[in-house]
Every structure is written in structure tokens, then in C-alpha cells.
Design goal:
The chain has 480 residues and is of the alpha/beta class. It folds into two domains: 79-338, 3-Layer(aba) Sandwich (Aspartate Aminotransferase, domain 2), CATH 3.40.640; 346-470, Aspartate Aminotransferase, domain 1 (Alpha-Beta Complex). The chain is built from 17 helices and twelve strands. α8 links the parallel β2 and β3 (180-184). α4 runs antiparallel to α12 and α6 runs parallel beside α12. It is globular, with a radius of gyration of 25 Å. Bound molecules: pyridoxal-5'-phosphate. Pyridoxal-5'-phosphate is lined by residues 71, 134-136, 167, 169, 211, 240, 242-243, 264, 279, 281.
């Protein structure tokens, strides 16, 4: 039987994966061995249960509370996704590549193949890699694809254009791949200043990275014109689609000319996130970039057999071990199949409606820097409250006392005292109305009793830690 170690299938030499477990004892250097038994605390099962149950109660999660954290899409993740991802046929499978013969993981390969196909349909892209572990990882993959494209064509490019309203990871990814970043300011409507963009666009620009809708929660109306200009210079248009719940079924980035799209499955497609992972930042490309995609790709031969294709012509190589976070791919696949086309369109309509509802309800109380229809999130500021000494951070703390996770604050950086609210499509009107009421209470309290907000929270285990110190000298225990 052909195995994926077989050169004829993979194009790679086989390698030895035998682990000499029985000799492990001998192989381990003495200095790494434990000299005496570990001192483990002697506690009863009940004490352990209480300890962890009490700790878990300190968690703030979508399953317990409203979580309108802008740019993060903290939507409800249906539990059926979890069920699918632990089906024994999947969860007992060894990592797909290179440890399992492809004949033995046809089901898993079919999932990857179908998911890639569906995501291509959704984004208007030609091909997709599901390897990247996170959004930023997808961005780096995308920029490496961009670099490979220019290298193959003998183009000498130094710069990547990133509007100020892009997600912060965009310039970081471009810099990591060796490009210098040209930042373009936003105009009074919150869109990239197209005149400055035109001035900066030259033969030395490798491409542009656009977050659409931008981190200001607004749609870029000039994308078609921008992409035409980018293409005129043989440069690449990159779409940051981390938050695709603003456009599902309404706009396919490929249809307006984008060449690369990354999607955060852990934001848009109902897979959990937080604390840094595990996520999935799949990357789709147009015709122009298919020859550079990471290997392996999952393909299907004319007998309907799925296999791993290592033969991509100018591949940038593998960007993740095995096949990315496969359990996350399974969850996203379940989510898409469960909702179907109509369900996906419904996501976008509700996500955008909910954000606009909040905007309308709160705009008489909070300063709205860009007063126009928003997409899946809305950016306010604390400017009206500052005159009473109440800042965005104080509003955030007061919300915690009201069992609401704070919105994103002080981001996007281009908006001073930003309060970025993303209700998502999964919240009920009651929950959103309650949030609106609390926000209105805060605005009123800021006028009458600002101290109350400035000293909150009162109901949490700790009140206001020194945030820098807390991040640098993390302490994971507390007295309860
Ligand atoms: C979250 C986000 C990213 C980064 O994704 P990670 O998975 O956190 O690396 C990139 N772009 C946008 C617009 C995002 O919202």
C-alpha cells in the first residue's frame, strides 16, 4: 500500500518515526531525573472539586455573561460543535500528516477538503489552506505568499501599505515578513484616505492589507477602486477577514478582486477562543497565488480518494505542523453545515442589526466619532464623560460590576478613549436592552456621582490591579 511516506505519493523522502520507548529510561540524562518523589498535596476529591469549581466561577465567559468585546466576536459557540469534534473516529485519529496513512483518514481529509471548498465559495477564492493556527498566523502566511509571488516574477518590492484602521496584527505581520509598512490615515468618514493612498502607491509596494469592515466598524466604500490601482502595479490585495460575520452572503472578497483572504474560524465560524487559542486562521487565495500555497493540500483523485498533495509548484512550504488545529476545523465545518446558506446570511444581518441598534440607542449619551451606519461593531468614545473625570477604563470596570464583560477599550488606536462594542448575532434583544440600560445608567452617573464609576468594580475578587504589573508578574492564585 502506498503510504504518505512513500516518495511516489508525497514527493518527499520517508523518515523514521519509531520512538524507542523501552530505552527512554536509558536515554534520559541523569540530571533530568527526579531524585525523590514529588510532593503532591494530599486532598480529598471533594476539596479538589470545590477548588476547581470555585476557580471556574471566577471565569468570565460567553456561556455565563454578555461579552461585547469589539473585534473579537465573542459569539455563542453551539455545543454541537464540541460534540462533533470529539467523535471517536476523529479524536482518536493520529495527527493527519505525516503519521497516518491517507487511506486510514479519508473521513478527516474529506472534512478538510469540503471545508476548504465551502470557505472558497463563501469568500470567492480559488483555493484554501487550513494550516494556520490563528489570524495573525494566517496573515504571516498571506504575506509570505505575497513575497513568493513577487520573487517568482522578479519584482523588487519593499513596502506593504496598511491603513491606520487595520487590525494591529496587520503591520506586525508585514514587518515580520521583512517589509516596511506604509501607514495611510483615515478620513472623516472613517475610511482610508484614498488620495494619500494614491500618492504612496508605487512599483515598490508589494501589496495592501485591508481590514473590511475596518476596526472602526465601517465599510470601505472605495475598495473596488483601491484594488484596481493595486493591480495596476502588479501588487497584491489582502483582505483581513477575521470578522466575516459582517459580510457573509453579502460580499465575496474574491468578487471585488482581493487576492488573499484570511478568516478567523474562531471568530466568524463559531469555534471557541480566548487566552490565545487554539484557533484557526485559514487562508484563501485567487488564481494568481495558487502556485505558492503551503503544502500539503488535500485533493481528491478521480476515484474519489482524498490524498495529500505536496506538488504545489512554488510552495512556501508547510506553515504548521500536521494539519493545523484539526478539531477547530471540525467545529467550523459542523457550524457551517448546520446553518446552511440561509443561516449564514442570517448571521450577518443580525450581527449588523444588533450593532446598529446599540448605536442608535446610545448615540445621545456617548460620543460617536463616525456617525454613519456601522457594520458588525460600533465604536464610541468616552469623550462626553471625560469632563467629569470618567474614562473608558472606568466605564469598563463599572460594567464588570453589572455582570457584563467590558467592550474593547483604547482600540482602535486612531480613536482617543475608544469604546468598541460588538454585540454579535447570538444575543437576545433582552440582553442587548439590558446592556443599553446599564450604559445609559453609567452616562447619567458620570454626571452626578462620577466617583462611583471611578472606584468600581466593587463586586470582584480584586478591584483595580496595576495592569502592567499584573501582566508582567502574573500571579495565578488568590485567596478565596
Ligand atoms: C482578531 C483579529 C486578528 C488576529 O487574529 P488572532 O487569531 O488573534 O491572531 C486579525 N485581524 C482582525 C480584524 C481581528 O479582529
Amino acid at each position: 500500500m502506498n503510504t504518505i511516506f512513500d516518495k511516489s505519493v508525497t514527493g518527499r523522502k520517508g523518515f523514521n518515526i519509531e520512538t524507542p520507548i523501552k530505552d527512554a529510561e536509558k536515554l534520559l540524562d541523569k540530571k533530568f531525573k527526579r531524585l525523590k518523589d514529588a510532593e503532591l498535596p494530599q486532598v480529598s476529591e471533594l476539596d479538589v472539586i470545590r477548588h476547581f469549581t470555585n476557580l471556574s466561577r471566577l471565569n468570565f465567559s460567553v456561556d455565563t455573561h454578555f461579552y461585547p468585546l469589539g473585534s473579537c466576536t465573542m459569539k455563542y459557540n453551539p455545543k454541537i460543535n464540541e460534540k462533533v469534534s470529539i467523535l471517536p473516529g476523529f479524536s482518536n485519529l493520529h495527527p493527519i500528516t505525516p503519521y497516518v496513512d491517507y487511506h486510514l483518514c479519508q473521513g478527516a481529509l474529506e472534512v478538510i477538503y469540503n471545508l476548504s471548498y465551502l470557505l472558497c465559495e463563501i469568500t470567492g477564492m480559488k483555493k484554501m489552506t487550513t494550516q494556520p493556527y490563528a489570524g495573525a498566523h494566517g496573515e504571516l502566511t498571506g504575506i509570505l505568499l505575497m513575497a513568493a509571488y513577487h520573487k517568482a516574477r522578479g519584482n523588487k518590492r519593499k513596502y506593504v501599505i496598511v491603513p491606520e484602521s487595520a487590525h494591529g496584527t496587520n503591520p506586525a505581520s508585514a514587518a515580520m515578513a521583512g517589509y516596511s509598512v506604509i501607514s495611510i490615515p483615515v478620513n472623516s468618514r472613517g475610511e482610508m484616505d484614498i488620495d494619500i493612498f494614491k500618492e504612496k502607491m508605487t512599483e515598490e509596494v508589494a501589496g495592501i492589507m485591508m481590514t473590511v469592515p475596518s476596526t472602526l466598524g465601517v465599510f470601505e466604500n472605495n475598495i473596488k477602486e483601491i484594488i484596481e490601482i493595486v493591480h495596476k502595479y502588479d501588487a497584491i490585495a489582502y483582505y483581513d477577514g477575521a470578522n466575516l460575520n459582517a459580510i457573509l452572503g453579502k460580499l465575496r472578497p474574491g468578487d471585488v478582486g482581493f487576492d488573499i483572504v484570511h478568516i478567523n474560524l474562531h471568530k466568524t465560524f463559531g469555534t471557541p477562543h480566548g487566552g490565545g487559542g487554539p484557533g484557526s486562521g485559514v487562508v484563501g487565495v485567487s488564481d494568481r497565488l495558487c502556485d505558492f500555497l503551503p503544502v500539503p493540500l488535500v485533493e481528491r483523485n478521480n476515484k474519489g480518494i482524498y490524498y495529500l498533495d505536496f506538488s504545489v509548484k512554488n510552495t512556501i512550504g508547510q506553515v504548521a505542523s500536521f494539519y493545523g488545529n484539526f478539531a477547530v476545523l471540525l467545529k467550523a465545518y459542523a457550524y457551517i453545515i448546520m446553518l446552511g446558506k440561509e443561516g449564514l446570511i442570517d448571521i450577518t444581518e443580525k450581527a449588523v442589526l444588533n450593532a446598529n441598534y446599540i448605536m442608535k440607542k446610545l448615540k445621545n449619551y456617548y460620543h460617536l466619532p463616525f456617525d454613519r451606519t456601522c457594520m458588525h461593531e460600533v465604536v464610541f468614545t468616552a469623550k462626553n464623560q471625560i469632563k467629569n473625570g470618567v474614562h473608558a477604563v472606568d466605564i469598563a470596570k463599572y460594567l464588570i460590576d453589572n455582570n457584563i464583560h467590558p467592550p474593547t477599550i483604547y482600540f482602535p488606536l486612531v480613536v482617543e478613549e475608544a469604546i468598541m462594542i460588538e454585540p454579535t448575532e447570538t444575543e437576545s434583544k433582552q440582553t442587548i436592552d439590558n446592556f443599553v440600560d446599564v450604559m445609559i445608567d453609567i452616562a447619567n452617573l458620570a454626571e452626578k456621582e462620577p466617583e462611583k464609576i471611578k472606584n468600581s468594580p466593587f463586586n470582584t475578587v480584586i478591584s483595580r490591579p496595576d495592569e502592567t504589573k499584573a501582566a508582567r508578574e502574573i500571579k495565578l492564585t488568590c485567596d478565596m
